[in-house]
Specification:
Number of helices: 1
Length: 141
């Protein structure tokens, strides 16, 4: 006597499709679990920002800078200046900063916001008392 099982056609078709998929899978070679990357949760982290600051900023000093265009808090970070003394006075100066590990660093100030800048004439960017400063020159003929 032949032994049989009572299953519906739909269920039998699903079993057959599952067996076909599994039979094409290599033994022991497939991924069995996916490890989540926690740094990707919540989107990517920004490592380059445009910011503003006021006052002076000495070499090897930290300064609170404000993310440009961000009005919700937190919108400031502390960044370190490793390159050049800045003293734009009371003017708000634009700077770019970048993150290395967990620390932020000055990358580039807006040089047109440094003292002595003029859009006309010939100028030289100098360092006076440790700070960047524009000095006008007279062209030789």
């Amino acid at each position: 006597m032949t032994r049989g099982y009572l299953i519906g056609e739909g269920f039998r078709d699903r079993i057959e499709r599952t067996i076909e998929r599994v039979s094409g899978t290599p033994y022991g070679g497939g991924a069995t679990n996916v490890t989540p990357r926690l740094e990707m949760i919540g989107g990517s982290q920004k490592v380059f920002r445009i910011c503003t600051f006021t006052g002076s900023w000495a070499i090897d000093a930290d300064k609170a800078v404000t993310f440009k265009g961000v009005t919700t808090t937190p919108n400031t970070v502390s960044a370190r200046n490793l390159f050049c003394g800045l003293s734009p006075g009371t003017v708000t100066c634009d700077v770019s900063i970048a993150k290395d590990g967990t620390a932020w660093y000055l990358v580039q100030p807006n040089l047109t916001q440094q003292p002595g800048y003029s859009a006309s004439g010939t100028q030289v960017l100098t360092i006076t008392s440790g700070n960047l400063r524009w000095v006008g020159t007279t062209a030789c003929s």
